[in-house]
Amino acid sequence: MDVVQFDPATGRIIQTGSSRLENVEIDRACGQSIIAGMANALTEYVRDGAIVSRPSNPARLDGMTLRSLPVPCQIIIDGRVYECSDSECALSFSHPGHHVVTVEAWPMQSATWEIDN
Prior knowledge:
- The protein is mostly beta strands.
- Helices cover 8% and strands 45% of the residues.
- The chain has one helix at 21-29; strands at 2-6, 13-18, 34-36, 44-47, 50-53, 60-62, 65-67, 73-77, 80-84, 89-90, 98-104, 111-116.
- The protein is elongated.
């Protein structure tokens, strides 16, 4: 059977796969949160025992400014995480080149842009 293991506190999908029912029952007895089904961790999560779509992220890049940011969120620039509690953020880079910017606010889907400056 197809199964989804998830974090019961957030609904975040930890892993997906196939397992026999008896193994699922053992895992559940050991405290793991597992439901039957197939899921995509990038676009779905578990809410109230069901696999549902993660909401889209409203963040958008306008020139060098991130707008419509979910509050609070995390802005990840080239792998470095910055906490953000504002709905807008002006971007600046200390070094020219190619940069990857991601906005995360669980359970929303991540929004990612690649910027060359």
